[in-house]
Specification:
The chain contains twelve helices and no strands. The chain is globular. The protein starts with a helix and ends with a helix.
């Protein structure tokens, strides 16, 4: 019965959000940014160089752009979903059928479904762009099968952290007219994490020390770990242990957010 209630909330959340014009305008602009970066900046650098050795920065750019896009597009959606909305008959019925925790879990899964749908569109877009972009083809060469799986797991971790952080912020904002300003902290944080990761991508002593000090910090840790995977610093066992520990930390924080949501609803 509980799973049916969660499934009903998730389907309702997905259908409601996918119909919003703000969602479509939100996922369209990253396409334009990627095309502009590829055509006017990266393509001239890579396209005119024959026999260029592929470095790993292209692969890291793909992951960083993905994280920033998720922060910009989906954190406001998840933040608004944390609101106790009973404006429609269907929403009011779902609230009467289930408790706050069921509602939050269902809405979280609904946003995840929305992201899967969006990622399918992005994959189709990348497939088309890949036919015309030498830089993108070079960047994808760094993704061996194992690297691609690990990169997907780290992106999933970063995504889960972003959504739960957004839900936490959304439920603490009492004046919902200020929600967009409060949620803007999340995309700003993802951009800062990407910049810090780019600055510390070298193997300097201070850079390695800072990476160890901030291990476990959401999003930034995933970007650091992906860089270490690309340059083969850690063994696969260490990477697997890191991924498991990160998921455990996320589960603990999610449990805390669920309890907090029950208190505020």
């Amino acid at each position: 019965m509980l799973m049916k209630e969660i499934g009903a909330v998730a389907r309702f959340t997905f259908i409601r959000d996918v119909r919003k014009s703000s969602y479509w305008s939100g996922i369209i602009w990253p396409f334009s940014v990627i095309v502009l970066i590829s055509v006017f900046f990266l393509e001239p650098l890579y396209g005119d160089s024959k026999g260029m050795v592929v470095d790993f920065k292209g692969a890291e750019v793909i992951l960083a752009v993905s994280v920033i896009t998720i922060g910009l597009v989906f954190s406001p959606i998840m933040g608004s979903e944390s609101e106790k909305d009973r404006s429609s008959k269907v929403s009011d019925l779902l609230w009467s059928m289930s408790g706050p925790r069921t509602q939050l879990i269902g809405r979280f899964l609904g946003v995840i479904l929305l992201m899967i749908f969006s990622m399918s569109l992005y994959i189709l877009f990348f497939f088309i762009l890949n036919e015309y972009s030498a830089w993108l083809r070079d960047a994808f060469k760094a993704f061996e099968p194992v690297t691609g799986v690990i990169g997907a797991c780290l992106l999933l971790q970063a995504t889960l952290w972003i959504l739960v952080l957004s839900a936490n912020i959304g439920m603490l904002v009492k004046n919902k007219s200020h929600l967009s300003q409060a949620i803007s902290v999340i995309p700003a944080y993802t951009i800062i994490c990407s910049v810090v990761n780019a600055q510390l991508s070298g193997e300097s002593q201070w850079g390695n020390l800072i990476k160890k000090m901030v291990w476990g910090l959401p999003v930034l840790s995933q970007l650091f770990e992906f860089h270490r995977v690309l340059i083969h610093v850690d063994s696969m066992l260490m990477v697997l242990l890191s991924v498991i520990v990160q998921f455990a930390l996320w589960l603990v924080y999610s449990w805390f957010v669920l309890r907090l949501y029950s208190k505020y609803s």
